Amino acid sequence: MTSRKPARRAARPAASATKSAAASSAAATQLPPQLKIVQDALEDMKAVDVRVLDVRGMTDISDWMVISSGNSDRHVRSIADRVVEQSKAAGVRPFGVEGANEGEWVLVDLPDVMVHVMLPRTREFYALEELWERTASKPAAGGAASKPRRPAAKPRAAAPPRGDDVAAPRPRRAAAPRRRPASAG
What we know:
Blueprint: H1 17-28, H2 33-44, E1 48-54, E2 64-69, H3 73-89, E3 96-98, E4 105-110, E5 113-118, H4 120-126, H5 128-136
Parallel strand pairs: 2-5
Antiparallel strand pairs: 1-2, 3-4, 4-5
C-alpha cells in the first residue's frame, strides 16, 4: 500500500494593498456576459435610447437594468424576441418574459440583467430611469452636510373677501348624548 502525499500549493507572492484594491475595483466593474449579449441584440435590432443602469446594492432583483425603446409594439416584441434568442444561443436561459402579447412593455428577466423594452409613451409614463437614478443618488445615512435643502414654502395668498352672496358656514350639531345600557336587574 502506497501513501500519497498531498500536492504542495505554490506560494503566492504577497500583493501590495494598492494592487489588491485595484484588482477588486476592476472585478467590481466587470460586466456580466449577459449584459454584452443584451447590448449586442439591442444594437442589432436598432433599439432606441438604450440605457444601462447599475443597480447593485439597491435591489436584490438584479444587478443591472437595461431600458430601451422600440418604435412600435411589433418592434418592441421583435427586440425582446432577439434578446431571448441571443441569450439562449449563448447558453443563458431567461427566467421569464412578461408582456410579449401586448407589446407596450416587454420585460426579459436574465440572470443578473433585467431588460425592459418599452414604447416611448410607456417609458415616459413610468420613468424607470428617474426612479433608479434617484435611488442611486441619495446621500449616505448620517451625511447631514450633504442633505439637499428643500425650498422654502411660498406664503399663501390671502383669501379674497367674501361677498353677501356666499352662504355662511353651517353651525355644528351638538353630539347626541350617549345612552346607557339598560340594566338587567
